Task: structure prediction
Amino acid sequence: MFRFLLPLILAVLLVMPAAARAQGGMPLDAVLAEHRDQIEKPSRQTIGPVIDAIVETRDPAAAAMLQAWGDRVLGLNAADGRFYIIARQGDDWALTALDGTDAGTAPRGTVTELRPNAGVRELIAAALVEFTLTDPDPARRAQALDSIARSPSEAHIEPLRDAALTETDPVLKARIARLERLVTLQHAPLIADRIAAMEGFRGDISLDVRAALNPLLATTRKVATELPEGTNIAAVLTPGENLDEAEAYALLVSAGLAPPHMTTAEQKTALAANIVDGAVGGVPLAELASQAGRDRAWEALEAAGSVPAAATDAEVAEALSAHVFFDEYRQPNAEITAAARDTLDSIETKVALMQAADLGLDAVSLASIYFLAAIGLAITFGVMGVINMAHGEFIMMGAYTGYVVQLFIPDRTVSILIALPLAFAVTFLAGVAMERLVIRHLYKRPLETLLATFGISIALQQIAKNIFGTQARPLTAPAWLDGQLAFNDIVAISYIRVAIFVMAMIFLIFFLWLMKRTRLGLEVRAVTQNPSMAASMGIDPDRINMLTFGLGSGIAGIAGVAIGLFAKVTSELGSDYIVQSFMTVVVGGVGNIWGTLAGAALIGGLQKVIEWLNPANTLAAQTYMILFIILFIQFRPRGIIALRGRAAGD
Result:
């Protein structure tokens, strides 16, 4: 019986150390003692198993040891043969045990400072990932993911896969899974794993994915006598078609397959310098009138060593036809490049859709700005028929009001909340004063009204320059309007633009309520339709015109505060929007709020499309837009939504 049990007992005793080590049972001190010589003098080729053995101990001190080793603050104390975290303290080393306890000091000469090279430190950093990815602190796990994302390598793949199985935070778990696929895509040794990772990123428009895929499709332009076998060819090029002939021959020269090209003028100059007894290289001067004769003379001079080797036009053509030009993928595996191309194609399709969505979002944003700037003009122009060229200056006055408020109230949120009604009050009063003093005397005289308001516009600009100077003044948005609302890496809009859009919708609702649900709105509509009949019903048209002009001017002041949050507040601020405001009102339909909204949408969208087609020339975009509007008015002179009543009759 004992004879049968003895071999079994010996086998168990032999297997136990290995099993203990695999389960992390071997103490860290034992591992460090066993591999002390290798740790003291590490080599990238042999230190890997030692680092793995340290990690497998699962000892918390192992992480501290590896971190100190990688940071070059690990020392070996000759007195006891143990490793310590070291720090300079005068002429001695301050020692800290790997478990964090203070171990006193040691003379400088008794401690060997371990300074691993870059290759070993890279292996140590990879090993530390496993510790940090399983750290109890979510912030440290997130920092580990940031570190991997900055410099991913093949060594990170398995720790990431293991961490994905144990991670409990759903946000970090998703991030780990995505990062693992990204690292697999770039560094996995198996082609199937890399292709599977690419498939998982189909339609993913994130910049990091495109940054990982694009290098896989990088190419090198090459030339050879025939296409090499076993290479990953991206495209075959034909000189004169999809490859410039000069570029193709330069490639031949750089590859040492042809001499430099010589132009006809250079050839003639060199031949003239080698005329001897009425001939060049034995070719009579009379024969040099033809290109063939000049080429023979040049070849003779080349053979005699009188001129350096150079290719004539005929030799260039012959060399180009004798070689094949191609773009070769730097990634040698065709399956990987095919999968990368397929994934990038799907991404580019989605990117195009997202760019269209972003363009639409920009158009909506610009349309809301134009609508906010034009709504006051729509009221005065539509109801009163007054061409107010000073409307832009009311926008400017509103912006400066916001600036002045912020000089006295540093809190940005409070200052904006105060500036909005104050800007309305200031510009309302300015509009009422302008109507009482100037406009009321010029009704039914559009040309005189235009000239008068244009003069007022210039005067208001000069007054603003005298008060505030010519430099742009800051109108700072509250902190909660900083940044942007980002849907992905492509589609985003600033919070200020979102706020302006919301404000434009608020004013749309306010205007509809005012016109449909209030007595003032009823009287305004009555005066708009038939002022004589309205007067006979007890409505004072002069009072309504005054209030209407003041209301339109006040809304322009509020628009000025909103526009000033992202535009430069200068005396010319209003002139930047007056043309677009008039175009918005005219194209939409004079005196109709829905027409103004439609006009703003059309002009904002049209301007963004033209700028997208011609991004390098914004002046051209403005010109094309004006030409389009002129043509539009020729076919629909009353705008998108025509007004009925007095304005329609006029």
The CA atoms of residues 45 and 59 lie 25 Å apart. The chain has four domains: 23-122, 134-217, 219-329, 364-649. Residues 1-24, 645-650 have pLDDT under 50 and may be disordered. The longest strand covers residues 82-89.
